[in-house]
């Protein structure tokens, strides 16, 4: 068997050598391999056969392992597939909602040139509402009033304004400029709760009780110009408005005294001193000042803009030197007219007033941050929340401002607005209406307001403003 296997090996080698056309010397009888050589060749041949068999089997084995490792995924249920598709559509819709271009034009001016004015005024208090006045029989119930009054007393306020303006708008360039002239007046007073305690409960201690209340007021006139421009492909809009202002009338926060006197009848006397600056006494020394207002707005998304304003940043404070210290004396209520109405408010004499020194005055400084959100991806509906604060002068108070407003714009012809919030010490609920016929525009705004939140819904105060604008 061994000799036969050796014969096949030698023959295989001989055939290969013959195919390559190489000469191999013929072995003689003496050159025939011995048994040890034959055994070695047999071992080599066996190892070669085993290696060839392993190599031939390895691809099949690897394929088998791969087939075993790979498992075809189970088909996704139809419900899960629909849910994934639905979530994907929602995600794509939200992304498009915030990124796809929207049809917004709120920053674009309607006219190249316009000129106009608006005027308004109002009053408010924190005690008496419309239901207390518009009744068949008006009843003055001091005890009921006293129960409703908070510890900070009763606030009373009056305001009025007149604004004139002219604008030139370069639509293609996205910028414009103009001028303005404003007159704004506001007067505030506070009656303490102790006064109403006295009126409702009487002089229980059989003595002449006294107290104090505060008053303040100002009339500011200003004139200036404004400029605005757009940048970053009209995404960024900035504006600046320097102004020169004059305090025509200025009453810094002052305290007056009251006293219930029962020596000669029953009456409430009012008296005290207050500083009073009046530019009408001497126009040669107005003592005006200068400030600047800034505005910025950026289109964060096609449906969302963010912006802010800083109003009346002082540059040069006004210096008033035409002031006098006035003495206020009078009878607020007496036993003859206690139930008929308010008596004499007192006698104020400017001729006998004592001149006072120079006083520096700045206008109320106001900061506001707002967001313009257009849920319909167009100017038809805009929701505008805003927050900020005002450092008010001359009452020397700081007020938080928070307003939520909804604006409806129909083809840039009909404009409606509703807003509610607190602004500079007043709760206001405002409705606005405007019609723009291109060559002219008419605006009207009406608001309910009060220093007290609940009273602001009860007609404790109103604001009304009218505006006209002309242009082309």
Helical amount: 10-25%
The overall pLDDT, averaged over residues, is: 79
Largest sheet: 14 strands, antiparallel, barrel
* Order of the strands making up the biggest sheet: 1-2-3-4-5-7-8-14-15-16-17-18-19-20
Question: What gross morphology would you assign?
Answer: elongated
Tell me the layout of helices and strands.
Layout: H1 2-19, H2 35-69, H3 78-99, E1 113-125, H4 130-133, H5 142-148, E2 154-170, E3 175-191, H6 193-201, E4 210-231, E5 236-261, E6 267-278, E7 289-301, E8 304-316, E9 318-320, E10 323-334, E11 347-348, E12 354-355, E13 359-361, E14 365-373, E15 381-392, E16 397-410, E17 414-423, E18 426-436, E19 440-450, E20 461-471
Antiparallel strand pairs: 1-2, 1-20, 2-3, 3-4, 4-5, 5-6, 5-7, 6-10, 7-8, 8-14, 9-13, 10-11, 10-12, 14-15, 15-16, 16-17, 17-18, 18-19, 19-20
Helix pairs in contact: 5-6
What does this structure look like?
This protein has helices at 2-19, 35-69, 78-99, 130-133, 142-148, 193-201; strands at 113-125, 154-170, 175-191, 210-231, 236-261, 267-278, 289-301, 304-316, 318-320, 323-334, 347-348, 354-355, 359-361, 365-373, 381-392, 397-410, 414-423, 426-436, 440-450, 461-471. α5 packs antiparallel against α6 (193-201). With 472 residues, the protein is an alpha+beta fold. The relative contact order is 0.11. It is built from 6 helices and 20 strands. The longest helix is centred in the N-terminal third of the chain and has 35 residues, at 35-69. A hairpin with a 4-residue loop joins β2 (154-170) and β3. It has 2 domains: 2-69, no CATH class; 113-471, Porin (Beta Barrel), CATH 2.40.160. Mean pLDDT is 79; it is low at 17-32 and 338-346. The strands form 2 sheets. Strands 1-2-3-4-5-7-8-14-15-16-17-18-19-20 form a 14-stranded antiparallel β-barrel. 20% of the residues lie in helices and 49% in strands.
């Amino acid at each position: 068997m061994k000799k036969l296997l050796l014969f096949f090996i030698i023959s295989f080698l001989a055939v290969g050598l013959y195919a390559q056309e190489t000469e191999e010397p013929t072995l003689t009888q003496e050159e025939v391999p011995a048994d040890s050589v034959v055994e070695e060749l047999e071992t080599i041949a066996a190892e070669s056969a085993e290696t060839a068999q392993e190599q031939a089997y390895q691809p099949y084995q690897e394929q088998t392992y791969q087939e075993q490792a790979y498992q075809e995924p189970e088909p996704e249920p139809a419900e899960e597939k629909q849910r994934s598709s639905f979530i994907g559509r929602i995600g794509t819709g939200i992304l498009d909602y915030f990124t796809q271009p929207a049809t917004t034009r709120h920053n674009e001016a309607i006219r190249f040139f316009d000129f106009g004015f608006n005027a308004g005024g109002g009053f408010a208090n924190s005690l008496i509402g419309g239901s207390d006045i518009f009744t068949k029989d008006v009843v003055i119930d001091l005890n009921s009033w006293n129960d409703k009054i908070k510890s900070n007393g009763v606030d009373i306020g009056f305001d009025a304004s007149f604004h004139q303006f002219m604008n030139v708008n370069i639509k293609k360039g996205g910028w414009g400029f103009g001028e303005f002239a404003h007159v704004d007046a506001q007067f505030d007073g506070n009656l303490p709760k102790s006064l109403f305690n006295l009126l409702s409960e009487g002089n229980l201690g059989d003595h002449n009780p006294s107290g104090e209340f505060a008053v303040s007021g100002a009339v500011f006139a200003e004139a200036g110009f404004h400029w605005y421009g757009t940048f970053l492909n009209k995404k960024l809009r900035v504006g600046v408005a320097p102004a020169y202002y004059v305090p025509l009338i200025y009453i810094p926060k002052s305290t007056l005294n009251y006293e219930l006197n029962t020596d000669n009848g029953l009456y409430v006397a009012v008296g005290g001193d207050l500083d009073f600056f009046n530019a009408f006494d001497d126009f040669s020394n107005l003592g005006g000042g200068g400030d600047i207002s800034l505005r910025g707005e950026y289109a964060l998304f096609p449906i969302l803009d963010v912006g802010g304003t800083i109003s009346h940043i002082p540059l040069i404070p006004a210096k008033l030197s035409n002031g006098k210290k006035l003495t206020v004396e009078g009878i607020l209520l007496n036993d003859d007219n206690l139930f008929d109405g308010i008596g004499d408010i007192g006698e104020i004499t400017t001729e006998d007033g004592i001149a006072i020194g120079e006083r520096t005055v700045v206008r109320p400084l106001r900061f506001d941050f707002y967001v313009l959100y257009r849920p319909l991806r167009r100017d038809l509906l805009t929701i505008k929340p805003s927050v900020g604060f005002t450092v008010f002068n001359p009452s020397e108070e700081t007020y938080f401002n928070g307003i939520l407003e909804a604006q409806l714009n129909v083809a840039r012809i009909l404009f409606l607005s509703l807003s509610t919030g607190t602004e500079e010490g007043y709760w206001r609920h405002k409705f606005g209406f405007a019609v723009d016929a291109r060559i002219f525009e008419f605006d009207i705004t009406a608001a309910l307001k009060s220093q007290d939140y609940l009273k602001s819904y009860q007609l404790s105060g109103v604001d009304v403003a009218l505006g006209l604008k002309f242009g082309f």
